[in-house]
Input
Amino acid sequence: LAQMASKAHEELAIIMWQGDSTLNAISEPIKSKCDGWLKRLCGLNPIRVASNTVTASTVIADLGDVVSAATDEMQVNAAGMKLMVSPNVATAYRIATASANTINYTTAALNLQFLDIPIVVHYGLPSDTIIYSDPNNFIYALDAEGDVDNLQIVDFSKTTLAREIGARADFKVGFYITNSEQIVLFGDCVAS
Output
């Protein structure tokens, strides 16, 4: 049951960021369920930063470009801001900072922070994506009837006579954006 719940959380993270209801439901059964934050954000007016493939040799400059593009209001409210990154960006950052600090490289894990700004890894973000924002600009709406952890085990041999067991979770979800002009986006609008 824990593995099924973990898989459901992974799929929800993908829908959350990369959801696009215009995709083909056969070829993209997860992403096509609803529109995620990237699709909604790209239909609005975020601050766009030219993006590239993030590597250990570029990640510090890339993060610097993102933070530098922020508005004055965002810079003043720095305590509430977060850098939300895809897993490959976090890995590149760890390698870049570890190779510059041999003590931490061999003895301790580095904190994920850039200029005292927390870096949060988001599984569902496409590769090479960095978002700088107050997380409260991203609204996650969930119905009150259930959630992704409310899994039901179904014995299909009692329904279709197939000797299989499956899981089902019923819940409604939606993703919305506020203050898009206070969000810096480094990356593509297209889900990967």
